[in-house]
Amino acid sequence: MNDLDNLLASREMILVAGSGGxxxxxxxxxxGIAAASRQKGRVLVLTVDPARRLATALGLDEFGNTPTRIDxxxxxxxxxxxxxxxxxxxxxxxxxxxxxxxxxxxxAGIRDAVLANPLYENIxxxxxxxxxxxxxxxxxxxxARGDFDLVIVDxxxxxxxxxxxxxxxRMVEFFGSxxxxxxxxxxxxxxxxxxxxxFYQVADRVLGSRFLQDIADFFVLFQAMEGGFVRRAxxxxxxxxxxxxxxxxxxxxxxxxxxxARFLARSLVERHMCLGAIVANRVLPEELAGGxxxxxxxxxxxxxSGSLAASIAKQLDVPVKHVRAVLTQIASRFDDVALVAAxxxxxxxxxxxxxxxxxxxxxxxxxxxxxxxxxxxxxYLRNP
Length: 384
Fold this sequence. Notes:
The protein has helices at residues 3-10, 24-38, 52-58, 72-77, 93-104, 108-116, 120-125, 130-145, 163-175, 178-183, 187-191, 197-207, 211-223, 226-240, 255-270, 291-303, 307-316, 320-332, 334-352, 371-382, and strands at 13-17, 42-47, 68-69, 85-90, 150-154, 245-251, 275-283, 358-362. The chain is an alpha/beta fold and 384 residues long.
């Protein structure tokens, strides 16, 4: 069993984090398959807005917050061997907010009033970092229910990878903010305060006579749920530092994503959260940065116009001039590839020094959009 296998076997929660565009969702799904391949338990992958073909492969076309099991026959058809059960769910923002309101409302009257408020859907859809907070709430709920041996959370894409860590605290701050206190001052008192009367008269004419009242009504009702929201946020914060929870940081070895990964890794350690592994995705082979590869490219360039091109053209049954042009381009541009590979090697070494486990996943042919592709990717994760 390798180090990543050990991590998946020993934890109850794995949060897959990193900047957007690094293949985080695909890696999270492959980690789920890797865990189900090694363990007999029930593994859940909670994902966020996967690409359509990947969603189809995972059976998410018609599913949301409710976990659904991937049919074992689908794994067999894809040639993927699993010992355990793999379940998947996709974060549904609208359903998630409805569940939160239902859970935290002190009574049915407040619950129904919030859900019926005309601004409810608009405001919750525009809540800053709404996805991150809902993912953390879902994580807490799944952990509390204990239906799964391992829950892997594909954290929402964000330009700031720390957003997922700060989401519970931001909710606590919101309930104690001046903005909420201002919004929940009784509407009539504001309207008839001499200093503010002209502003609200103009606002009523421009926005409609009910607009400010609806805002006040909504946030008065929302404030009534403060106790439940704050308590859960504190519980989620505790769960993030729990020894049963670990983070897997996913990155590419390009400049910006790798810088973000280093920043996130340091922040996890500073916050006393467990950094379990770093996965470098879409990595060039280290061999390309070596002297032997450079010598091979130089030899290829010398032979591109000779018998080598003719031999390859004959085997492929294509014109010699096309083969010669391709070989010349590849060989003459190899230095650029070698430079990128060398830079990636340095960044990989920097990241490896920060985490107990470092896994590199090479560039794979084509997009991964089915269970067979995810199974191959899981193989690289388990046997780097």
